[in-house]
């Protein structure tokens, strides 16, 4: 019988973290703070470190439960960890409440200038940034996958956004893991935003916001997402191995920002990545109309309900 176990989700939602580390034949797991777990291999290798974060949006419970399952297996199966890991439950308050956020969208707060407030998300973002900085100082070469799920339908079930801070870097290692994680599409975003992935990328990591798929309920069954568990185990245990999964790249043509005054989104039944016809009207404002320029272009994250000055959608084109 295994001598150790871990309950990442339950422990992350409590203020009292275990005083002693969990030791397995493969690694030492230490609670640095609530929702912040470091995993150090007994026999370090040359492999880059990895940060896995979940729960930036508290109602996206599928990634949270998957990581809970993965860590339990890592401990109970006594797997040999070969790279340092930092595992983060980003927004415990929102996870506990079952809401996207408590006061503010946390994925717009990961910069020193954005996280100045004393609201719950700003305080937590500062804690997370400090933890990531501490980890990167110890392990300067690494990867960061910020795991999410979406309620919007998508023609590309699993997709990733690569932040602007990675735009000019070789992405070979990141692409290998996209294939292993069965990512159907990846988008190079060039619009500056204070996302968690862009923060770690600014510290030198290869980072991505990874959308695992559409979820229709907060208690969505995990069955169709379980194939990612052995891939996360593979991430902990060694380098990427070849995968035949095809991943389509996209570029962002422009970002539609909601203007002041009257504004209307004209598309009905929106689907992420669905090709649109040239001339299709996306939205209208008092002084501007947004249309699709070239047949085959698509939209990502269309949301008519955002406040003035926030992103309505990304217009994207396959590479």
From TrEMBL:
<keyword id="KW-0479">Metal-binding</keyword>
<dbReference type="InterPro" id="IPR050178">
    <property type="entry name" value="AspA/AstE_fam"/>
</dbReference>
<dbReference type="Pfam" id="PF04952">
    <property type="entry name" value="AstE_AspA_hybrid"/>
</dbReference>
<dbReference type="GO" id="GO:0016788">
    <property type="term" value="F:hydrolase activity, acting on ester bonds"/>
</dbReference>
<dbReference type="Pfam" id="PF24827">
    <property type="entry name" value="AstE_AspA_cat"/>
</dbReference>
<keyword id="KW-0862">Zinc</keyword>
<dbReference type="GO" id="GO:0046872">
    <property type="term" value="F:metal ion binding"/>
</dbReference>
<protein>
    <submittedName>
        <fullName>Succinylglutamate desuccinylase</fullName>
        <ecNumber>3.5.1.96</ecNumber>
    </submittedName>
</protein>
<feature type="domain" description="Succinylglutamate desuccinylase/Aspartoacylase catalytic">
    <location>
        <begin position="48"/>
        <end position="219"/>
    </location>
</feature>
<keyword id="KW-0378">Hydrolase</keyword>
<dbReference type="InterPro" id="IPR055438">
    <property type="entry name" value="AstE_AspA_cat"/>
</dbReference>
<dbReference type="GO" id="GO:0009017">
    <property type="term" value="F:succinylglutamate desuccinylase activity"/>
</dbReference>
<dbReference type="InterPro" id="IPR007036">
    <property type="entry name" value="Aste_AspA_hybrid_dom"/>
</dbReference>
<feature type="domain" description="AstE/AspA barrel-sandwich hybrid">
    <location>
        <begin position="246"/>
        <end position="318"/>
    </location>
</feature>
């Amino acid at each position: 019988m295994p001598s150790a176990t871990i309950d990442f989700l339950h422990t992350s939602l409590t203020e009292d973290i275990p005083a002693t580390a969990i030791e397995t034949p493969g690694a030492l797991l230490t609670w640095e703070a609530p929702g912040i777990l470091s995993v150090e291999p007994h026999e370090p290798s040359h492999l880059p470190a990895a940060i896995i974060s979940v729960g930036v949006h508290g109602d996206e419970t599928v990634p949270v439960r998957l990581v809970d399952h993965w860590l339990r297996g890592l401990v109970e199966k006594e797997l040999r960890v070969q790279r340092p890991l930092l595992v983060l439950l980003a927004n415990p308050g929102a996870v506990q409440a079952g809401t996207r956020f408590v006061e503010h969208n946390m994925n717009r707060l990961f910069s020193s200038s954005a996280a100045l407030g004393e609201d719950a998300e700003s305080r937590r973002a500062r804690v997370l940034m400090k933890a990531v900085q501490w980890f990167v100082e110890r392990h300067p070469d690494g990867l960061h996958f910020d795991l999410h799920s979406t309620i919007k339908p998508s023609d590309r079930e699993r997709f990733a956004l690569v932040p602007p801070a990675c735009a000019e870097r070789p992405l070979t290692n990141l692409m290998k893991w996209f294939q292993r994680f069965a990512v159907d599409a990846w988008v190079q975003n060039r619009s500056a935003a204070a996302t968690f992935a862009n923060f770690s990328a600014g510290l030198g990591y290869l980072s991505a916001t990874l959308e695992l798929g559409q979820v229709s309920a907060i208690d969505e069954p995990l069955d169709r997402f379980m194939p990612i568990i052995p891939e996360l185990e593979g991430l902990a245990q060694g380098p990427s191995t070849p995968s035949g999964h095809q991943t389509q790249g996209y570029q962002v043509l422009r970002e539609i920002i909601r203007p002041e005054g009257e504004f209307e989104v004209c598309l009905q039944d929106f689907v992420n990545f669905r090709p649109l016809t040239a001339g299709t009207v996306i939205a209208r404002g008092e002084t501007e109309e947004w249309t699709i320029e070239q047949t085959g272009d698509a939209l990502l994250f269309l949301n008519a309900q955002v406040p003035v000055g926030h992103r309505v959608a990304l217009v994207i084109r396959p590479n």
